[in-house]
Structure to design on (74 residues):
């Protein structure tokens, strides 16, 4: 990623920066949840609905890993 960013001189607009940050966050989140980023994006774009939302997956994972009194799932 760093080499690619250096070659292309990063993004050209503020919208490009935001889009890059959002996609990198999605990549990291899907990786941590153990699902394929490309499958998740394909599911969202095609509106198939086979993959639950990231919020749902995070809630499901948090139930199995209680964080004590400071974390209250809603």
């Amino acid at each position: 990623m760093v080499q690619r960013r250096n070659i292309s001189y990063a993004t050209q607009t503020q919208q490009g920066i935001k889009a890059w940050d959002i996609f990198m966050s999605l990549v990291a989140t899907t990786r941590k949840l153990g699902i394929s980023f490309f499958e998740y994006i394909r599911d969202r774009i095609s509106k198939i609905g086979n993959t639950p939302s990231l919020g749902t997956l995070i809630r499901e994972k948090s139930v199995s890993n209680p964080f004590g009194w400071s974390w209250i799932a809603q």
The chain has one domain: 2-57. The helical segments are 2-8, 14-33, 37-46, 54-64. DSSP finds four helices and no strands in the chain.
